[in-house]
Amino acid sequence: MIHFDNVTKVYSHQSRPALQGVNVAVEKGEFVFLVGPSGSGKSTFLRLILKEERPTQGGIQVAGKDLSRLTNWKIPHLRRRIGCVFQDFRLLPNKNVYENVAFALEVIGKPRRFIRKVVPEVIDLVGLEGKSHRMPDELSGGEQQRVAIARAFVNRPMILLADEPTGNIDPATSIGIMKVLDRINRTGTTVVMATHDAAIVDAFRKRVVELEDGRVVRDQSRGVYGQAYGGV
Amino acid sequence: MRVQFVLQEIWIGLRRNLTMTIALVVTVAIAMALFGTGVLLKMQVDKSNNYWSNKVEVSIYLCNKLSANPACKKAAPTAEQKGEIQKQLEGMSQVAKVTPETAEQAFQRAKEQFKDSPGIAGSIQPGDIPDSFRVKLKDPKDFAAVVAQMNQRAGVDQVVNERAILEKFFKILGGLQWAALTIAAIQLIAAVLLVANTIRLSAFNRRRETGIMRLVGASNIYIQLPFVLEGAIAGLVGGVFAAVLLSFSKVFLLGRLQKNLQFATPLSWVDVTTVIVASMCFGVVLCALASFLTLRRYLKI
Predict the structure, then answer these.
(1) Residues B4, B8, B10, B12: what is their CA dihedral angle, to the nearest 10 degrees?
(2) Are B265 and B201 in contact (CB under 8 A)?
(3) Which CATH number fits domain A1-12+22-81+158-232: 3.40.50.880, 3.30.2310.20, 3.40.50.300, 3.40.47.10?
(4) Which of A28, A58, B75, B300 lies most in the core, judged by the most C-beta atoms within 10 Å?
């Protein structure tokens, strides 16, 4: 599903590479934790998958497509197959829960009838039954993140990328968010989650890819957060 | 493509920076109106020029007892002299046609021309206007040669080139036209800069929305169309105001010109409508294009 083949990324105006010779293969349906300190290259890794950035060297394949051969006007089609969740939720404050989720389908031109059918389904899936008409500022952080997940998942992407989805949420609520991501993973969606949250990584025991200074220093199935950060 | 969605986005964009939108509409309206006025004046000049260049003639007035020219010695030329002048005129290579006009004919023509002003018509006496030759040139620009040869002839009082009078009138119109076009050009630059600024503000205001649109895979057209249409609509509204201003300038500027100057041939409303439609299209395309180019800088794909 996601293949990084010896990928190096150097941002202009920076001498130190953000990623250096990264080889990672994520198969369909996997759940991968991407861990490492700030500046280790986690966000760059996610941005490369979305083709928001181009690798300086090496090849990337996503959903069977070679990104270097993907023309600019086909990038939107790639992104329709990838859902994204962020630490800061990125909801539209002037739209309610239903409208926020529906927005993702409206802007890719889905018919109204289809939207009316799938949006309530996905709102139920993330555990927000009956809160369709709430505005984002009437929701808790955890609930807002559920809306963001619903929006990322409503178009049934093949891949869900989550960049510190529990970063702004207290530990108890984080478990609920993780359960939603786990539920989505069980539908066959590949999930890649960048995180600092040692407790969650240790509790879930999924594959762990650890980055440090732009290099993969550990790739472990059913791994823990890591010795250096007091995980074990 | 969800039309309602795009329209809603445009409405939000226009409403959110209303002051900029108003400034933009006003600037576009003035720019388009001046541009249209410039074009109308140009059409007026071309049309009048065309009409009159077929009609203007060089008039060669012969001496009579009222002539102020000392060379005339207050006496009309003899029939022999007249014949010689006519012969010489017909022999010139620049001359297309020579028509003699007697004092009596000239008197009748003047009475006809001023029939709307009884004061003038009544004060004209037969013989006020002397015998003359009305000369039509092959190329109106060659009048200098004819003037030079005729001025020295015995029996010739004065040579009047009607074109010189027309030229003055065209010069004034031409000056007005360039003034209008110059101000229009400056206004157009202002309009383009305002469009760029408005769209930049709009893009900044909606960066959350466009950021999400990008992430969920909205196509570039879907992301950019509301902005480009926002510019185009502002251009269109400005164009409507410009159309009103242009109608005014047709009625008041050109209309008055025609009333006061016999040289101005009237422009039809069809011409004016053509100019209005053309300047509106120009305004809309310009605004849309300016929006599009601004987006390429401020809206990352």
Answers:
(1) 180
(2) no
(3) 3.40.50.300
(4) A58
- For residue A112, list chain B residues with Cβ-Cβ distance below 8 A: 2
Interface residue of B215, B225, B299 to substitute, partner A, most A CBs within 10 Å? B215
Write the DSSP symbol of residue B252.
I
- For residue B85, CA distances in Å to B132, B265, B292 come to 10, 34, 70
Q: What is the ipTM of this complex?
A: 0.87
A82: nearest CA partner in chain B? B216
* Helices and strands of chain A, counted as H and E runs: 7, 10
Contact A159, A1 (CB under 8 A): yes
Among all residues of chain B, which has the CA nearest to that of A148? B212
Q: Is A128:A147 a contact under the CB 8 Å cutoff?
A: yes
Distance CA B254, CA B240 (A): 20
Band of pLDDT at residue B263, cut at 50, 70 and 90: low
| C-beta atoms of B212 and A76 within 8 A | no
Pairing of strands A2-9, A57-62: antiparallel
> Is B8 in CB contact (< 8 Å) with chain A?
no
Find the closest chain A residue to B206 by CA distance. A92
Can you give the residue ranges of every domain in chain B? 3-52+167-298, 56-162
What length is written for chain A? 232
Is the model's pTM score more than 0.90?
no
Nearest CA in chain A to B210: A107
Judge whether A214 and A56 are in contact, CB under 8 Å.
no
Mutation site for A-interface testing, chosen from B216, B300, B301 by largest number of A Cβ within 10 Å: B216
Cross-chain CB nearest to A76 (options B2, B208, B218) = B218
Distance of residue A79 Cα from the nearest chain B Cα, in angstroms:
5
Domain B56-162 - what CATH class? alpha beta
* Helix (H/G/I), strand (E/B), else coil: A189: coil
